[in-house]
Q: What sequence folds into this?
């Protein structure tokens, strides 16, 4: 059964009048108006111009010694910027993918040629707590990355989840290297303009 | 029976929602002879809805705190998407609401719509008016400008005349002056009251539907053919009216958004300085005039409240058995006289009490106010009761369907004449200061846009001259993109400024500003600014062209109007300068501009007038960065309403052809 069968024109056909035409046009114009009227209000709830403008943050990496990490705030979220030691990089690279809950190679999680810098969103993918381990004094869990205090998820030195309940690896924010010691969070490429 | 009908029936059997709508909005029998004055009820309803919607969205961004309220309003204007539209829609909406409601009430007064059995309908309407006044007053306080603050102070102090007045006023304030607690509660109540209005409107409509609308003839309907269903006849007519109303409202929102506002309200509230000329919003002016015209505080306040509360008693003050003024030859004129009286009261309220009308034979504003106040009460307390008894009325038609012979055109002419008269006496804010020379600006008029070269030159002057003392704290470097600078240039401009940043050791260090920083002034705080400027405070310039009467023309006149030798009768204090355009003639600012002080990029050295013009253009942009977008959107909206209105007009004509 097709749609056209259902919508057979009724037997008493009425000639469309000028009034019908006017009514139709007026309703269309009216609906359009209401739609356009609604848009500014809806749009007003989107991030305001200044908040959008603040959505890039530049980070100076030269101050972070190997083995340590800092937390920067980007769009109101903690971003973990970690200077990995060669040992940590190696550990991350050697894990077979089959052992991972959310399989991803270490190379996919860092920028080419900048292996020592791991930059992840510091929010547990389970229910949003902030994992510990960014400060040297904090527990990093048995995989040497981060440990979530809420329900015990553990992450490795690549920020990948190794023990649940978290289902996914720590997210990677968009960022670019402006030069070997500076990154800009919030953009995927630097615009030249 | 298709599925949808079955669902509707199922629901309706349990909750008669659909039959209610059908009964009250579709088939609801309405007199067939309602004229356009009957459009204003539905317009008021629609305005309220728009006010509530825009208000809720504004509340999502507004901050009810004395420290941030003013800035948060500017934040809405500059950063929130379409924030300027929502704010101007809301601010002008208050004006539109009162225009519509006042016309609605005058219509009731003319056609006797408050007479039995519609007394409660009228009284509920007066309650709505009272709630509207309270809501509008509290809403006006929220932007926390000078007028907000001093309006709040004056109005709340009215209550001090009552017994225990002192305690009442402190209770209203939540302190010993208008302050943060006051602002907070006003915000809460400003949010609440519109919903109370909705509640009273429901009652107003229930009372209306009990006996149906009054009509221009003021006689009850007798036969079925006197009535027509509300839909489609009055829905289409109301929508047609909405088209015209929307056009007018949109004109003000997009092309003249501050027409009804006061420049002083773009100056942040200052509890230590009262503006020289404080006036309430126009819709309170007649009542304000009544308050002032009585030289005794207690009786003035009583008269003002009385002027509103007397409206409750109109159904009993008017003794006439006939409703419509059409059949009351004397009342008709008295009514229009009363309308004119209200308008004159409005003008009286707009001028200072000492104002002298030279064109009215040296009549003082105070005398005029007393006369019109007297007439206002005379109308209610004497004319309405007595006229109803002694007036000879014309014979009434038998039914709505019996054509009435009347000279319509004559009536129209009369209203036109009165409107013309009102136009002439309408409030003109008289200032006693020097008339300003009128400059022509690139951004003025409905098509005006900012001249980019002037903006860049103006910004250069701002940087090299004004920025030594003034700031632009509502403008961010990134906003300079509107001047035609690209991201790299903006970064370079920002880097020349320093901002205080707290480093990891807790020390304040100076760092180059970023594009997201504001162009703050050179002084850390007000004390530092005053100390460096002979006690005077260089104002922030972000809103300067909006915050002064005369706007850009005034700033231009001020910059170019310095005179080295003051007239003999003027004594210039130490460290002051003579400038006839500055209120009082003495200004602390040294003449900022002089020839040769800047060299533009093309190597030219601008004249003094050219510099003033460029910098004022830049400051006008700083005050109204949304101006170009506003006008652009405005054109689309106006065209939309024209198309909508024309369509609805023809549809209405088509639908109404059947009504005889
Ligand atoms: S939120 Fe981290 S484990 Fe539940």
A:
């Amino acid at each position: 059964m097709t749609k056209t069968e259902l919508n057979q024109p009724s037997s008493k056909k009425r000639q469309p009048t000028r009034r019908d035409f006017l009514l139709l046009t007026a309703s269309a114009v009216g609906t359009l108006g209401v739609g356009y009227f609604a848009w500014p209000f809806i749009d007003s709830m989107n991030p305001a111009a200044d908040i959008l403008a603040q959505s890039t943050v530049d980070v100076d990496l030269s101050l972070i010694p190997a083995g340590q990490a800092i937390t920067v705030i980007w769009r109101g979220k903690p971003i973990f910027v970690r200077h990995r030691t060669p040992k940590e990089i190696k550990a991350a690279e050697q894990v077979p993918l089959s052992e991972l809950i959310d399989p991803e190679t270490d190379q996919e999680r860092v920028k080419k040629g900048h292996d020592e810098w791991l930059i992840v969103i510091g929010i547990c993918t389970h229910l949003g707590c902030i994992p510990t381990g960014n400060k040297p004094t904090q527990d990093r869990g048995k995989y040497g990355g981060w440990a979530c205090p809420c329900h015990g998820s553990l992450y490795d030195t690549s920020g990948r989840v190794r023990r649940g309940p978290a289902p996914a690896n720590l997210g990677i924010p968009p960022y670019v290297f402006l030069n070997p010691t500076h990154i800009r969070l919030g953009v995927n490429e630097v615009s030249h303009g | 029976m298709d599925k949808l009908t079955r669902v509707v029936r199922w629901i309706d059997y349990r909750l008669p929602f659909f039959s209610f709508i059908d009964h009250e909005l579709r088939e609801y029998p309405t007199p067939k002879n309602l004229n356009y004055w009957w459009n204003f009820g539905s317009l008021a309803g629609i305005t309220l809805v728009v006010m509530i919607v825009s208000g809720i969205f504004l509340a999502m961004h507004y901050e009810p705190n004395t420290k941030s309220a003013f800035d948060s309003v500017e934040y809405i204007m500059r950063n929130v998407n379409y924030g300027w539209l929502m704010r101007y829609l809301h601010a002008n909406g208050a004006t539109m609401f009162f225009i519509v409601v006042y016309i609605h009430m005058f219509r009731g007064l003319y056609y006797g719509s408050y007479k039995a059995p519609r007394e409660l309908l009228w009284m509920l309407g007066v309650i709505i008016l009272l709630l509207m006044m309270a809501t509008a007053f509290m809403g006006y306080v929220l932007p926390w400008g000078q007028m907000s603050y001093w309006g709040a102070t004056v109005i709340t102090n009215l209550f001090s005349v009552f017994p225990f007045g002192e305690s009442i006023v402190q209770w209203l304030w939540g302190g010993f002056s208008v302050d943060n607690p006051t602002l907070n509660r006003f915000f809460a109540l400003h949010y609440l009251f519109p919903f109370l209005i909705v509640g009273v409107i429901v009652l107003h409509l229930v009372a209306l539907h009990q006996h149906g609308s009054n009509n221009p003839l003021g006689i009850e309907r007798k036969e079925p053919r006197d009535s027509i269903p509300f839909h489609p006849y009055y829905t289409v007519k109301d929508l047609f009216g909405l088209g015209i109303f929307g056009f007018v409202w949109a004109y003000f929102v997009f092309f003249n958004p501050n027409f009804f506002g006061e420049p002083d309200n773009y100056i942040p509230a200052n509890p230590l300085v009262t503006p020289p000329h404080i006036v309430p919003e126009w819709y309170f002016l007649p009542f304000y005039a009544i308050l002032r015209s009585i030289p005794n505080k207690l009786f003035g306040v009583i008269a003002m409240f009385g002027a509103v509360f007397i409206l409750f008693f109109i159904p009993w003050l008017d003794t006439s058995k006939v409703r419509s003024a059409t059949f009351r030859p004397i009342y008709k004129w008295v009514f229009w006289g009363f309308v004119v009286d209200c308008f004159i009261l409005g003008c009286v309220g707009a001028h200072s009490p000492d104002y002298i009308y030279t064109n009215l034979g040296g009549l003082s504003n105070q005398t005029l106010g007393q006369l019109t106040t007297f007439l206002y009460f005379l109308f209610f307390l004497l004319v309405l009761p007595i006229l109803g008894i002694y007036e000879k009325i014309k014979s009434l038609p038998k039914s709505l369907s019996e054509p009435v012979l009347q000279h319509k055109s004559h009536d129209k002419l009369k209203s036109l004449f009165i409107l013309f008269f009102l136009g002439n006496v309408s409030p003109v804010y008289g200032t006693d200061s020097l008339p300003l020379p009128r400059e022509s600006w690139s951004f003025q008029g409905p098509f005006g846009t900012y001249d980019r070269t002037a903006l860049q030159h103006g910004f250069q002057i701002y940087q090299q001259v004004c920025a030594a003392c003034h700031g632009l704290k509502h403008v961010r470097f990134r906003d300079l993109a509107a001047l035609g600078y690209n991201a790299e240039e903006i970064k370079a401009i920002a880097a020349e400024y320093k901002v205080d940043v707290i480093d990891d050791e807790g020390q304040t260090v100076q760092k180059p500003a970023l594009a997201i920083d504001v162009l703050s002034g050179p002084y850390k705080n007000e004390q530092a600014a005053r100390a460096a400027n002979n006690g005077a405070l260089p104002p922030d310039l972000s809103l300067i062209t909006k915050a002064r009467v005369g706007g850009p023309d005034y700033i231009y006149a001020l910059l170019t109007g310095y005179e080295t030798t003051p007239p003999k009768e003027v004594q210039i204090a130490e460290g002051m300068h003579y400038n006839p355009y500055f209120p009082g003639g003495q200004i602390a600012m040294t003449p900022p501009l002089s020839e040769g002080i800047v060299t533009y990029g093309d190597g030219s050295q601008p004249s003094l007038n050219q510099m003033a013009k460029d910098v004022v253009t830049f400051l006008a942009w700083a005050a109204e960065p949304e101006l170009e977008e506003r006008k652009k959107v405005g054109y689309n909206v106006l065209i939309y309403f024209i198309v909508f209105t024309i369509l609805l007009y023809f549809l209405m004509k088509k639908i109404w052809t059947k009504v005889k």
